[in-house]
Amino acid sequence: MINISSQASSVSTAYTLKSYSSTATSDAQGGSANSALSTLQDKALSGIAREIPGMDVSDIKKLDANDYSPDKIASRISKFVAVGLENARARGKSEEEVQALYDSAMKGVEQGFKEAKDILSNLKMLNGDIAAQVGETEKQTFAALADLDPSKVSQQSPTLTESVTGASMAERYQRAEDFSLELKTREGDTVKVSFSRNLDIQNTVAAAADSEGNQAMTLDLSRSESSGYQFSVEGDLNADELGAIQNLVRDVGQVASNFYGGDVQKAFEQVSDVSFDSSQLSSMNLRMSRSEQYSAAQRYQQTQQMDSPEQTQGARRLANLGRDMSDSFSNPALDFLDQARESAAQIMRNLAQQDSTFKDASSDQQSLFQERLDRFLGAFAQTE
Questions:
Q1: Residue 229 in contact with residue 21, Cβ under 8 Å?
Q2: Which parts of the sequence belong to the DUF5610 domain (predicted)?
Q3: Where would you tag: which of 167, 180, 208, 380 has the fewest CB atoms within 10 A of its CB?
Q4: Can you state the percent helix, strand and coil of the chain, rounding each to 5?
Q5: Max CA-CA distance within the chain?
Q6: At residue 248, what are phi and psi to the nearest 5 degrees?
């Protein structure tokens, strides 16, 4: 018996573009206050990232010593949480879900501070001026985070109306292919061949803007692919049987090529032409399956939010996001993102044109899809 099989291989890629990049820190070294505060910030941000899906601190940039002060760290952490909450709103999350994310973020910060203080305490650093700065950082951070509490914001007396528009779109394409061929020879030998392949592509884009021109955008792309192959022989094949099997497999391969290429009718027409040498082979069992699924969802929402002078939630948080985006996109390599709204529209159009469903559609269907996509993007553009 011969048995050959390949392990299912998988390839996955993911791309994430976010509207805010937080700051990285170094480990606590020596007895300096800056290293102590950097450890405090690092643990707090990591705690938040654990609690809010989609938040990433892996691309954090290094800071100089002047950037580690209680007020700057408090501002940095609160902005990081604000980004997570606004991203959730842009994706259509309810206020109850946003509140749950906020509560989780608070737990993450508390846990992060606890871990950092444990480290500093073990290093005999949590005393004197360092202890005072750590305490002040913790105090200012929780004060800044309290201003973001969705439940408190909603209870304040409204004196200012702010228009906030959010739009999001998600697409997913899945394809599964399975192939199996079983042959039996006149002498009772059995040959089995099987193959499978799966593809999953997802992308999500979300954006939010207010009437003052502040805006934020996120884009997530992911692709995963897996395949497996198996070949087995039970018995002892002679030269004539091998020749008959090779001819049949060659013809079956052409049928499979058309079937998995989408031309099912031609594949069925070719089945009758498959070379089956009945003098060597007694039976053949061929199974092929192919499934494709494409789904798309979009959401557009425009709300009038009532804010108090002390807490203009939409304008203030989106203004922070706008400034953070401007800083993030100052890198010359990201010049193409100078205008987030235009970039988002272009990315969405490129994704649509590269999708196999779009490519295989008729010209009328392509025009209809383009029209719907333009309406979706145009609705967001009207917030300028």
A1: no
A2: 35-148
A3: 180
A4: 50, 30, 20
A5: 94
A6: -65, -45
